[in-house]
Amino acid sequence: MNEAVVSEMPHDASRTQSGTHSGYSYAFLDELTKKSVRRAILKAVAVPGYQVPFGSTELPIARGWGTGGLQVTLSLIGPGDVLKVIDQGSDDSVNAVNIRQLVELTAPGVDTTAATEEATIIQTRHRIPEAPLHADQIMVFQVPLPEPLRVVERRESETRRMHAEADYGRIWVALYEDVVQHGRITRSAGYPVVVNGRHVMTPSPIPKWDVPRLHQAPFLSLFGAGREKRIYAVPPLTDVVPLAFDDYPFAIEDFDGAHCARCGSDDTFLVEVPQPDGSSVMSCSDESWCEARRTERGQS
Amino acid sequence: MGYTPVKGGADAVRAAAELTRSSSSQLIADALGERSTLDHVQAHLGAAVDRIMGEGGLFAPDLAAVAITQAEGDMDEAALLLRAYRSTLPRLGYTQPIQGRDMRVTRRISAAFKDIPGGQLLGRTRDYTHRLLDFSLLDNGGASTRGQGHAETTVPPLDGHADDHRPDATVTADASDGAGFTWPPFPKVSDTLRDIGSIAPLPEQSPEETPFDITRESLRFPVPRSAWLQSMARGETAAMVCLAYSNLRGYGYADHGTIGEVRVGSLPVKILHPVTGVAVTIGSFEATECEMFGPEGDAPVTGAKGRLLPAFGLSYGLVIGRNERKAIAMSILDSALQAGELASIDGGEVAPSNDQEMVLSHIDGIESTGFVEHLKLPHYVTFGSQIRTQMSPRRDVMLAAERTLAGITPEVATERGTGDE
Amino acid sequence: MSAIATLPTEIVRHDHVASRNAEQIALKVENLEARYGRGCSACHELTGPEHSTNVCGQCGTVIACADVSFAVRAGRTLGIVGESGSGKTTVLRCLYGDLNPAGGTASLMTYEDGRANLFTASAQVRRRVRNFDMGMVYQHARDGLNLRISAGGNVAERLLAAEWRRVDQIRARAGHLLERMEIPRSRMDTPPSAFSGGMQQRVQIARALANGPAVVLLDEMTSGLDVSVQAGVLDLVLELQRTEGVAMVVVSHDLGVIRLLCERTMVMKNGRVVESGLTDQILEDPRHPYTQLLVSSVNA
Fold first, then answer.
1. Per-residue model confidence (pLDDT) at position B289
2. Neighbour count for residue C210 (Cβ, 10 Å)
3. Do residue C166 and residue A167 have CB atoms under 8 angstroms apart?
4. Model confidence over A14-55: pLDDT tens digits?
């Protein structure tokens, strides 16, 4: 594991703001920025699945690498919160480590964890943890491309109108064409869904495996797209239904009965790991879940 | 007004070259007692060296360092220097084909899989650092070269006028807009033409009550002109030059305009004094400004002398610092965006440079480079999901069933419909 | 035939008291006005056939159409004839929602029983009415079809926008409609970019009829087609008139098309209606000088 050693924030003598000793604000963002992000979040919760535009400030992390999810997390987090950060389901991914460390540096009083059940805020890229989540937890998703209609229409002015008028014929016909050409729907990660019976939304590039977890979930889901400058939300206990036909229904990924090579699970989302001899094994993408299963079986 | 060509063009060229040479980094380095600047460039500006080699098309790190130094950090200029040098080299022959797999690797990653045979070697990368300015560089003898040994304060201005707009100008109180300031000795070309009556007067009121603020609000199209000017003012130079170039070449409404003026210098920063309410100058910054006259503006208007004017469209570019090519690109794009939707004359597609969404969504360098490079991030979950989905059966089951029901065998249409009428 | 020196300012009507038929009014339009520009008090007086212009001399606003009123009964066809700039296409675009009118009312028997003004409904409602109750055939196939998806997909898009959710039913309906347009089912999954002009128009008609709409609007549907091809399309429309019971508005500059398809006709010039009534009477005994000019130029 590449744990870069960072001991403290660089000291900027020109700043006199109160907050941490380094002169930066608590949780890096200044209070006005946090306020504008929270306003966007409230609006998003009020209209489930609707993409709320927001100012989206730059962070010390490249655009496209999680600045949207981070702005949401940094605007919500405070002393007493416990943060888990994962990327592809792994706490150890360098990207997750990088993000977690930035929060540790700028938000004293916040604990971090890899144990899903301990977290109050879970920032994630491309996965929902396998562990059941409860109503006191908030999922914060990093979103690269928030617009589900972009595949059929490249202009934002037009996709905005389509959402406003619930004019979704073109995304439906794209699915129809998919069925006609391939005999089934071939959309995979980032599968479009209808939220609260009204707005079509992309759940971020999570696998199909995770999409049913959003439907009538007890937890709040927030989606942050920093580069595209949009925030959207699925409040708890909201209908989230994947777009599909009655005779070509939505189906999650099929692993052909494979098991995780590390913990033996056959009921989690597995990823393929190529081996030097040309073969490959499957293992859980959710590594903290996998580790806990191994412990249960006395395998650690 | 008669136009008298200025004599002494050759002298002016010579003096400009002298200005450039006398302000070169080597002089600065000598003045500051540094070692060779070339060493410094190679040691500390390695990314710049690599970029120049790539764009110049020549693998020669030391020559790239020379180019960067000589061009004072103007990367496009440095690439040109290296490219021009390359073209002087004789072609000695062709190498043998080589394979990427034979590379001696210092860094190797994959987004498609979490682990791969040979491992994920992060190597030397800034990808996972926090982008926080390292202020220790400021403290440790890295005194700013601006204001010390800088061209503007070591070489007297050519025209001998006192220049009150130096970067270190102290606070000056303005009783009114004119007093306490030396009025610029160079009247704006556009102002002169307005006085003559050759171009339309400025409108009485700005068409926008308050300018858009792109740092507070995100763009929702279509956006007002202040929003696109702001976006372009901090746009990436290369991206803007690319799109402006496409417009000039004909991808879009291209009857290219004429540069009325490019000016480089310092502009004052003024605020209203919180107590007296009077305008006060608190500092200055260097900027480059470009005004272009396009071939067409709005409906004809009556000018200062009562003449009906062909109404040149005016387009504008303004950037922080000295960057003429960006200011020019900005004014070309300003003109293109003003033409906007009207530019698709034949009802066809709007060209990229005339399309607000296309231009404004793609010229921010921080956004574009971040997203392009984010592909290096792990994507093995999405990749795995795609593979799993492709592998499911049911191919052709639906169509076969239909064929059976309809009793027909579908043909694959390969040519345009014939005899179908 | 005298030259048009001064034109009467009144619209010449041939309304006879026909026996009231049992068919209800499918579409009713009153005082429709559309313009490009901000408009001024003089626009109305300074434009129209008596001034031979659509452009207001005072403010430069283009009055595309004004004072347009008509009604179409179910199963009947109204023709609108005039030259370019007459405003006939503008009327259709306003009805279909491609253009926002400046004033007037439009009511559809399937929308609030014809009691509400479609023009003042919200964009979302207007889109719903357009998707469920109306059909439009454009002059150019590229405006009415998505040439990148299959012919069946173009028809399916309308069904999907009307919330059909079974692929087998969608394909059955789309295939059936295309067959009626004499496009074989084997071409159903081919993009119309590969079709001839006449075939593309027939795909448009199939698409316009997909949802069994109350009103179908046809804008110069035979322009640009070979005469023999035109005949085929016209035959098809005649047959549809007999079988579908749908109200149609046919716009054309071609009096032959109008004569063939439309029981009633409106003649437009410079954005105003100059004559209206039974097609046969207008063609045989035109009263307005402009109509006389039109008719004589065909007969000559």
1. 92
2. 24
3. no
4. 444 444 445 678 999 999 999 999 999 999 999 999 999 999
The pLDDT of residue C105: 96
Rounded Cα distance between B277 and B269, Å, is: 15
d(CA A99, CA A60): 10
**B 387-416 → C contacts, CB under 8 A:** 398, 402, 406, 408, 410-411, 413, 415-416
Indicate the Cα dihedral angle A122, A125, A129, A133, nearest 10°.
40
Q: Where do the DSSP E strands lie in C90-212?
A: 103-108, 134-137
Q: What is the pTM of this model?
A: 0.83
pLDDT higher than threshold 70 for residue B312: no
The reply to whether CATH 3.40.50.920 applies to domain A5-146+195-242 is: no
- Would you tell me which residues 98-127 of chain C have a C-beta closer than 8 angstroms to some C-beta of chain A? 123-124, 126-127
Cα–Cα distance, A238 to B177 (Å, whole number): 60
Residues of chain A with pLDDT under 50: 1-7, 14-21
**What Rg value do the Cα atoms of chain C yield, rounded?**
19
Comparing CA positions, the residue from B71, B75, B25, B72 lying closest to residue B53 is B75
How do the residues of chain A divide into helix, strand and coil, expressed in percent and rounded to 5?
30, 20, 55
How many other C-beta atoms are found inside a 10 Å radius of the C-beta of residue B26?
A: 15
Specify the long-range contacts of residues B245-252, CB closer than 8 Å, at least 24 apart.
Answer: B245/B329, B246/B351, B246/B352, B246/B353, B247/B332, B247/B333, B247/B336, B247/B351, B247/B353, B247/B354, B248/B332, B251/B351, B251/B352, B251/B353, B252/B336, B252/B339, B252/B343, B252/B350, B252/B351, B252/B352, B252/B353, B252/B354
Domain coordinates in residue numbering, chain A: 5-146+195-242, 255-300
Q: Residues of C with CB below 8 A from B410's CB?
A: 185-186, 189
Query: Residue A155 and residue B357: Cβ atoms within 8 Å?
Result: yes
Do C186 and B411 lie within an 8 Å CB cutoff? Answer: yes
* Tokens 């003429």, located at residue: B324
Residue A85 pairs in a beta bridge with A123
Q: Confidence class of residue B278 from pLDDT cuts 50, 70 and 90?
A: very high
Distance CA B224, CA B207 (A): 9
- Residue-wise pLDDT for C8-52, tens only, equals 333 333 332 222 334 789 999 999 999 998 888 888 888 988 888
